[in-house]
Design the sequence.
């Protein structure tokens, strides 16, 4: 208990929907038990950090974004998009040393999702549909039956079609045999996206009941 | 669950109940350092503490709590004379479960820099965040670390202060009375030369699952007991959100794991003192980063 977990940074993994992290917001994400904080500054730049303040270990995802800095809830230490600490409120006149940093990981957005170790890519307009969490290890997760064409694989994504528009699904293991299923689409019709989201909630319900 | 083999942790007195928690004639199961214990109250409410194998452990009643030990040579109980002063209100705030290391809980109690962010508009204000320089000293005669000359601006330092004014510069003195207990003295409303005493005694059930007890000996003739307890419980529940979300849960004492600043002088002294004692229970000895 308490020993440091390692994060697998050798492969690309989708962790969240881009739409769930608007500018000025911070969210937690867990990959194989490793806790991460995802936040976005006012210009839209995304940051993916270890969810742990270098000062006293507080989860940074409990903090808040002010003036393009992620601020720790515990002591108000402010971290900029370069991951460096910019201000320590207990010592307002102290310039924090350059070595005082949050721990960043490579992140990009693809198909409307936040991707650890992803490559930047202009995909056009994607909409978030839903993330669902299911009490199943990754290998036992059933892919929701929402595509009208056979799935094709692109890195960590599965791509399909709905009404000639694209739909993307990605999975990741969160912790203790639980998994997340992320779904996005280029479908411009909000009603269609809402019915997709409902289908995913039914999918989660079915997978949860089969388990218990 | 097995009992720890850490002799430093074993040789301490720990609270296992507050006065009145086990009703006369009743019993209650609890855990200390991984060892399941049964508390039995006789007809007058006095507690007997037994292990699962039927061994009866020694007990001490003090500071509104019942203490026991699993060691043969426990560190002496701290002397806290304020609990014997007849004009003080001795208040038992019950207990709160906290899922983290007991040492994280002690360290948070020593910390002034979080007042503005965690106890906003009560123990700190967002525009008065500076922690002024203070001193720490190891008192070798009692083996306690004291932090003195601590001052902090507080909008509502206590229930009586909240009712009386819009804020004050509060004086603090901290005493680390054992690896698993800590107390503070702070400005008492209306007294120039006496201080309120607030204690934190921790019962570690396991390395990362604790029960915290907060007896107080206050100078306050005005506030109701309920409002004094409510005040302290509010503060502690605000702290619990932090405590249960620090990572790792075990307190990392390798210097590279977490980066202190000047305000953390007492935390740095506490970590060094724990390391010098050879304590392992509740600590992460290797690097956390």
Sequence:
């Amino acid at each position: 208990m308490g020993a440091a977990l390692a994060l697998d940074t050798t492969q690309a993994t989708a962790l969240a929907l881009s739409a769930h992290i608007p500018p000025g917001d911070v969210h937690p994400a867990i990959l194989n038990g490793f806790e991460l904080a995802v936040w976005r500054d006012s210009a839209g730049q995304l940051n993916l950090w270890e969810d742990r303040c270098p000062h006293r270990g507080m989860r940074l995802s409990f903090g808040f974004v002010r003036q393009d800095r992620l601020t720790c809830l515990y002591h108000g230490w402010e971290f900029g998009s370069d991951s460096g600490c910019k201000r320590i409120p207990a010592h307002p006149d102290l310039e924090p040393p350059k070595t005082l940093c949050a721990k960043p990981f490579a992140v990009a957005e693809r198909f409307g999702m936040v991707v650890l170790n992803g490559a930047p890519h202009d995909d056009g307009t994607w909409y978030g549909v839903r993330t669902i969490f299911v009490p199943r290890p990754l290998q036992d997760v059933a892919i929701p039956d929402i595509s009208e064409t056979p799935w094709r694989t692109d890195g960590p994504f599965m791509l399909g079609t709905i009404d000639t528009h694209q739909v993307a699904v990605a999975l990741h293991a969160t912790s203790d045999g639980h998994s997340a299923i992320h779904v996005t689409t280029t479908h411009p019709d909000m009603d269609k996206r809402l019915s997709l989201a409902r289908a995913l909630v039914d999918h989660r319900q079915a997978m949860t009941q089969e388990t218990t | 669950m097995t009992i720890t083999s850490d002799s430093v942790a074993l040789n301490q007195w720990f609270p296992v109940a507050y006065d009145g928690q086990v009703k006369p004639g009743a019993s209650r199961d609890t855990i200390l350092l991984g060892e399941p214990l049964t508390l039995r109250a006789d007809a007058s409410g006095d507690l007997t503490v037994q292990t699962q194998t039927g061994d009866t452990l020694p007990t001490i009643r003090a500071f509104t709590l019942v203490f026991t030990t699993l060691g043969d040579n426990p560190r002496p109980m701290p002397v806290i004379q304020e609990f014997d002063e007849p004009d003080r209100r001795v208040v038992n705030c019950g207990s709160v479960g906290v899922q983290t290391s007991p040492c994280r809980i002690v360290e948070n109690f020593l910390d002034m820099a979080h007042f503005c962010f965690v106890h906003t508009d009560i123990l700190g204000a967002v525009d008065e965040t500076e922690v002024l320089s203070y001193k720490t000293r190891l008192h070798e005669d009692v083996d306690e670390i004291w932090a003195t000359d601590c001052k902090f601006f507080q909008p509502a330092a206590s229930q009586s202060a909240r009712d009386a004014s819009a804020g004050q510069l509060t004086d603090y003195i901290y005493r680390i009375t054992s690896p698993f207990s800590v107390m503070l003295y702070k400005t008492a409303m209306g007294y120039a030369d006496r201080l309120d005493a607030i204690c934190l005694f921790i019962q570690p059930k396991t390395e990362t699952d604790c029960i915290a007890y907060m007896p107080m000996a206050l100078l306050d003739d005005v506030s109701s007991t309920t409002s004094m307890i409510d005040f302290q419980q509010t503060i502690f529940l605000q702290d619990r959100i932090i405590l249960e979300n620090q990572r790792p849960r075990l307190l990392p004492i390798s210097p590279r794991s977490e980066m202190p600043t000047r305000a953390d002088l007492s935390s740095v002294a506490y970590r060094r003192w724990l390391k010098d004692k050879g304590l392992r229970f509740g600590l992460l000895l290797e690097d956390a980063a």
In short: Chain B has two domains: 1-77, 78-280. The first strand of chain B starts at residue 14 and ends at 18. Chain B has six helices and 18 strands.
